[in-house]
Amino acid sequence: MIPVIFASSVLAFPMTIASFLSPEGGFYKFVQRFFYPGQPIYLVIYAVFIFLFSYFYTAVTFNPADVADNLKKYGGFIPGIRPGRPTAEYLDKVLTRITSAGALFLTIVALLPYLLGPLTGISQIGFGGTSLLIAVGVAIDTMKQIEGELVMRQYEGFLK
User: Fold this and answer.
1) Domain encompassing residue 7
2) pTM given for the model
3) FRET pair for 17, CA 20 to 30 Å: which of 67, 71, 113, 158?
């Protein structure tokens, strides 16, 4: 969700600046034409920003070298991979693959309301793809918490 928030914030900045200017001005008309949500150029820039911010956020929050050092320090290892630098390289390679798939999925989900509107003829979709992600995440977390409470009390399960 953080890459979507970053991308939408960066793209909202030109509209914010333009709102302070005269509606007859050239900059205002330019921003209104290209940076208004739903415009094709806006969607392309939005998709690129989501993808790039996904990699940026992953790079900021996860450091493969630190994880490899901690694994080595505490006696852990990845089977078939030598401890130290080879582990860091392996983690970086896996992280890049996972981030690519996640960034693509996040981009598709974030753009889905904009793309479904013209296809279905519905001009305003009540909630976006990111709202759906949040709702599903909260539902899954709630189910896990309920399962944990039931297991703690030695019941078989919530849905069984």
Assistant:
1) 2-126
2) 0.75
3) 113
